[in-house]
Amino acid sequence: DAGVIQSPRHEVTEMGQEVTLRCKPISGHDYLFWYRQTMMRGLELLIYFNNNVPIDDSGMPEDRFSAKMPNASFSTLKIQPSEPRDSAVYFCASTRGAGQPQHFGDGTRLSIL
Amino acid sequence: SQQGEEDPQALSIQEGENATMNCSYKTSINNLQWYRQNSGRGLVHLILIRSNEREKHSGRLRVTLDTSKKSSSLLITASRAADTASYFCATDHNAGNMLTFGGGTRLMVKP
């Protein structure tokens, strides 16, 4: 079975540009999570969806961040405008249901210059 | 805020030795999970232990859970160089299927 697929794997862009990260969850998984990982703050949950509906976005740092899940097989995380402090590795994960293990993609390493 | 806190932050051992990592948390849980992360990769689920379980095994992995002390430990027996990775505990507090991850333990196994 294909795992969680994220694209791009690496993104380098200049401050002020719009950045779009993409995620394809595992088929049949009803929950999708976006995380951010940095050395300073560790792994932080940004937002998660259940059946394509955003359930908790309290981890989204500010209005520059937005996430959508237009269908069960695709989600995006957008940063506009991007800032150097947004540099991090962004992970997407999915799970079948409550109390189940999460399956992670290999992440997008984002560098904002 | 991080609920699960791992100890130690870093651990270096020789191949063949056992590695023990500990995790503490603050509020009651439904389950606790351990994940491994190799450099440049995503987290991989290792084992899940429910709040009514005290010990669980999977291959060379042994996880214990003490809910009275709000702590868990992960033991890797007969370690191999391929076990070199960061290990994270994650707690499920029945808050809408969210997990709270600790800061991780970086394990290095020297050949």
Structural description of this entry:
- The complex is a heterodimer of chains A (113) and B (111).
- Chain A is built from no helices and 11 strands.
- Chain A is mainly β and 113 residues long.
- In chain A, strands 2, 4, 5, 6, 9, 10 and 11 form a 7-stranded mixed beta sheet that branches. In chain A, strands 1-3-8-7 form a 4-stranded antiparallel beta sheet, with no helix packed on it.
- Chain A is globular, with a radius of gyration of 13 Å.
- Chain B has 111 residues and is mainly beta.
- Chain B contains no helices and 11 strands.
- In chain B, strands 2, 4, 5, 9, 10 and 11 form a 6-stranded mixed beta sheet that branches. In chain B, strands 1-3-8-7-6 form a 5-stranded antiparallel beta sheet, with no helix packed on it.
- The A-B interface holds A 4, 31, 33, 42-43, 45, 48, 50, 55-56, 91, 93, 95, 97-99, 101-107 and B 2, 30-31, 33, 35, 40-45, 48, 88, 90, 92, 96-104.
Summing up helix and strand content along with how strands pair, one would put the structural category of chain B as: mainly beta
Query: Unreliable stretches of chain B, pLDDT < 50, 5 or more residues?
Result: none
- Average pLDDT reading of chain B: 93
Shape of chain B: globular
How many β-strands of chain B, per DSSP? 11
How much strand content do the residues of chain B show?
A: over 45%
Low-pLDDT runs of 5+ residues of chain A are none
Major β-sheet profile of chain B: 6 strands, mixed
Q: Any idea what the radius of gyration of chain B is? A: 13 Å
